[in-house]
Design goal:
This protein is mainly α and 140 residues long. Helices cover 61% and strands 6% of the residues. It is built from 5 helices and 2 strands; from the N terminus they run H-H-E-H-H-E-H. Strands 1-2 form a two-stranded parallel sheet. Helix 1 runs parallel beside helix 2 (42-55) and helix 3 (68-81) runs antiparallel to helix 4 (87-114). The protein is globular, with a radius of gyration of 17 Å. It starts with 10 loop residues before the first helix and ends with a helix.
Length: 140
């Protein structure tokens, strides 16, 4: 996490720039990198693709799918188990309560428009079955 992330809107961009440099360096060593993050902007996806290209590595996008209702249910369960003094959980909760929940359907729709035939789709159900489906989709 970048210091001041709660008040400095550009901290995500700073962390992504640094992260991309680390990703490229790690890929150059012949190892894999998994970015477990929602990246919903085409220009940002291209930055990740560029890091893989710069390192001579393969690039794969995976979309874990779930309904808006299921995503909302998971958020409520996860939030209920978060410590009340967890600042990241509080930040996410505030976002959720200030319109994040209302945006969920449109966020899923935007992501669906972003996905093309190069992406792997994996239905997200339980952790074990999702992992098994991901391994199978990756050819493992």
């Amino acid at each position: 996490m970048i210091g001041g992330w709660e008040t400095y809107a550009m901290s995500a961009g700073l962390s992504r720039t640094g992260g991309l440099a680390l990703i490229t360096a790690h890929l150059r060593t012949g190892h894999d990198v998994v970015v477990p993050q929602y990246v919903g902007l085409p220009d940002q996806l291209e930055r990740f693709r560029g890091a893989a290209d710069d390192a001579g590595a393969a690039y794969v996008c995976v979309l874990l799918t779930a309904t808006a209702e299921e995503v909302a249910r998971r958020f409520v369960v996860r939030d209920a188990s978060a410590a009340r003094d967890d600042r990241w959980a509080a930040y996410l909760r505030a976002d959720w309560e200030n319109g994040g929940y209302a945006e969920l359907g449109s966020t899923i729709d935007r992501l669906e428009r972003l996905v093309d035939d190069r992406w792997l789709r994996v239905e997200s159900t339980t952790p074990d079955s999702t992992y098994a489906a991901l391994v199978a989709a990756l050819g493992g």
